[in-house]
């Protein structure tokens, strides 16, 4: 019924020469403001552009922005609560894979309108939900960055977001969690987004075998392997459940950490590594781009005469479709595509959603929304900074 009314309205509009409205925004880029009633007066009151066309599936009232940041900003500044939401930009466009529901919506940092949605307004929208007074980022924009900034430790975490929500629990170990740059809560076995605590941060705290955080270790099952990896074998440290005997002592010039530091300046990209190029390949397992980048090393697949996995600047980069070392999906479960029968701006909404979750939109790739970290969900602190600046 609503569609029909809309169609009638547009026939009426068409007869009034709708092309006279002034917009450069392409029809597929029109992000629907979803005002109700969906008319010119209401539309212009909330600062959206009114420009109906004859096709009913193209938004008549849309944001005067196409860039992701301003789309989210406009949406967040005009929607405060369920009862006061002037612009309702869909935060859950992926209806192919998930039926929007309150839990799924809120886990995205968005507002569940539920039964307050009028007609076919989206049920899940971006809104201004600042988690902490005075905090400059508004929610809905970068919930994961927010979580990192306001979750300092397990006991002091204002916004708990699971760091590895799609991993089976047996794979979420303390080691894995810390190397993702997340916070490990041993009492609850939770791995949370938060202030970083990866290997780089631990190494300077490790002064000797007796004065070294338990987590400052590299994986090595024997003294020989530890030496080979330039670690320091500390037999006083526990060997199970994880073998933590191979420590990274900060003033040992031959330990892994020193290698990392050295290589960070001598090997800044695959094309720019000065001798000696130090092999970072594992003797314990088959090295892949993921295992290599995960431990902070550089994956250089093109030159067969030098180690493919080597110490260097951890150069994992994925900032655009054309500039992505490894195409790893941001979300393994969400299908970021649109069928031809769906409204054209759904692709734009998926891009905005990908961006809001710090994904990298790469529509030419299979997954379309790629991860800024070598793992799926967790942005490393170093990536957060890069991504954030990139977006500014
Ligand atoms: C949309 O933005 C453009 C460029 O900033 C501006 O010239 C135009 O007046 C705006 N249109 C409306 C309807 O606000
Ligand atoms: C969100 O609300 C806070 C306080 O309610 C306000 O200071 C801030 O400017 C708002 N942010 C946006 C983007 O509207
Ligand atoms: C491999 O690396 C060596 C030393 O850096 C360089 O001389 C050589 O040209 C490289 N080969 C290729 C195919 O890039």
Automatic annotation (TrEMBL):
Keyword entries, A-Z: Disulfide bond, Signal
Entry annotated with the keyword Disulfide bond: yes
P-type domain location: 19-65
InterPro entries the record matches: P_trefoil_dom, P_trefoil_dom_sf
Disulfide bonds: 33-48
PROSITE patterns in the record: P_TREFOIL_2
Domain of life: Eukaryota
Signal peptide location: 1-20
SUPFAM superfamilies: Trefoil
Stored Pfam families: Trefoil
Name used for this protein in its record: P-type domain-containing protein
Organism: Clavelina lepadiformis (Light-bulb sea squirt)
């Amino acid at each position: 019924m609503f569609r029909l009314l809309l169609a009638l309205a547009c026939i009426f509009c068409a007869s009034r020469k709708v092309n006279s409205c002034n917009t450069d925004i392409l029809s597929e880029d029109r992000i629907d403001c979803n005002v109700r009633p969906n008319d010119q007066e209401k539309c212009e009151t909330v600062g959206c552009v009114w420009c109906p066309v004859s096709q009913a599936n193209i938004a008549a009232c849309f944001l005067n922005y196409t860039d992701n940041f301003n789309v989210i900003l406009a949406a967040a500044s005009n929607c405060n609560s369920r009862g006061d939401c002037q612009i309702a930009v869909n935060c859950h466009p992926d209806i192919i894979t998930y039926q929007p529901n309150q839990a799924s919506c809120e886990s995205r940092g968005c507002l569940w309108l539920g039964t307050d949605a009028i007609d076919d307004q989206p049920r899940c929208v971006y809104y201004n939900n600042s988690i902490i007074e005075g905090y400059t980022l508004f929610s809905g924009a970068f919930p994961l960055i927010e979580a990192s900034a306001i979750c300092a430790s397990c006991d002091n975490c204002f916004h708990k977001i699971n760091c590895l929500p799609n991993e089976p629990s047996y794979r979420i170990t303390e080691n894995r969690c810390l190397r993702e740059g997340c916070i490990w809560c041993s009492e609850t076995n939770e791995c949370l987004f938060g202030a970083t605590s990866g290997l780089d941060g631990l190494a300077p705290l490790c002064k000797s075998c007796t004065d070294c955080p338990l987590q400052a270790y590299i994986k090595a099952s024997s003294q020989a392997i530890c030496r080979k990896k330039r670690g320091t074998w500390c037999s006083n440290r526990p060997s199970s459940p994880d073998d933590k005997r191979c420590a990274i002592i900060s003033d040992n010039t031959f330990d892994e950490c020193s290698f990392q530091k050295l290589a960070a300046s001598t090997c800044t990209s695959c094309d720019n590594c000065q001798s000696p190029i130090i092999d970072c390949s594992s003797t314990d397992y088959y090295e892949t781009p993921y295992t290599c980048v995960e431990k902070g090393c550089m994956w250089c697949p093109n030159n067969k005469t030098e180690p493919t996995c080597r110490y260097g600047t951890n150069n994992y980069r994925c900032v655009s479709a054309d500039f992505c070392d490894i195409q790893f999906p941001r979300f393994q479960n969400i299908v970021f595509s649109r069928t031809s029968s769906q409204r054209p701006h759904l692709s734009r909404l998926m891009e905005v959603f990908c961006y809001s979750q710090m994904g990298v939109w790469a529509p030419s790739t299979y997954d379309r929304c790629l991860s800024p970290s070598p793992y799926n969900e967790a942005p490393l602190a170093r990536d957060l900074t890069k991504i954030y600046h990139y977006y500014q």
